[in-house]
Amino acid sequence: MTAPFHAACRRGDPFQAMNPSETPRRSSRPHKRLLSKLGTALVLALLSIGLTGCWKMSSEAEALRDSLMKSAAVEWDREIEIGVGALTLNLARAGLAFVDLDLDARAALNAIRGAHVGIYRLHHGRKNFDHATLLSAADDAMAVRGCDRAVAVVNQRELVAVYVPRQIRSTRNFKVCLVVLDGRKMVIVSARNNLEPLLDMALRHSNWLGKDLFADMAMSGTRIEASSSTARR
Amino acid sequence: MKNSIRYMPALAIICAAISLNVYAENPAPGYVDFGKFSPSASGGEFVEVNVKSNLIAMVARLTKKEEPEVAELLSGLQLIRVNVIGLTEENRAEIQERVKTIRGELDAQGWESIVTAQQKNEDVRIYLKIRGDEAVQGLVVTVLEGNKQAVLVNIVGDIKPEKLAEVGEQLNIDPLKKIGRGLKKHGAAPK
What we know:
Chain A is α+β, with helices and mostly antiparallel strands. Chain A is 47% helix and 24% strand. Chain B has one domain (28-186).
């Protein structure tokens, strides 16, 4: 018997010993198996990141939620917390490419880079919240995260607040965080958007619905004086 | 030499902090501090809009292509602040007094009252901060709608009155049209 045969036997592979011509092909199989395992592991990792990321809120949304819940000092039940990232949205866009969507809906879908939504319900009935306290707590929590309140609207039991970053680096990756609260439910949304298509949409639909105070007054015969006062130094 | 290089980063940070502090303590001439408003406990209407220069500049960049006049108008602005406060039994007296105080302060600080409009229950005043004869640095609108609500608007920055009316026409924003025409009539435009 030859030396290679003995070596193959010592390795426990008599087949190789008997068929030395098989050696080059067989040595590539472990390599392919390794690549295949790595690929599977990568896909599983991506899937698990995607899936676990689906049930988590962004850090800004969490901070906003926690500050409001703490200052409201009541018990909340979580109805849902869900997030969609770039992967999920790209899949959605790919799927909806075959659907006949309204222009604005498609523009909105294309504009979103990622979103997290949390919906919470009061454990017991309704409550009249102290909106001033809630806003103050939310402002403090968001300020730590580099966000300022741009808009706040309060009407009876409803509160809507919108927070935007203090530093805006890119219009294509603009983050916004908003909360809508009524006496019973709280909805928190955190989204990253490309502002350009959204602004195009807004400009297409620009139609000022604000109160025309001056027109009302003109119709009722109000006297309008254009006056100037001497500047006092 | 080595010691001075070691202290350079610290010195740079201190200088930056000082300059930021100075900027914070010296707001723009057209800025008016209305004070802090809070929603009423009894659930009256409350709206607060506070759009700063970073957001305004971003919108100006985005609208440059589609609406260049709007972009030009926005590019000079530093702050847009709007407060709408619903008047209730609890806050009516306080808010009315605050608006009166703000108007007094504006008169004392050299703001020009260019529009005064009074109806039965509505009281509107528009003020401008003008630098020399050339530039409008700030605009303040104060409205007391009887017992219903108070509205305060402060726009800070390089405001071009002739552009206000144009933008109002283009975007069909009636209050802007009226304000712009009022300013033009008054002659508050750069010469």
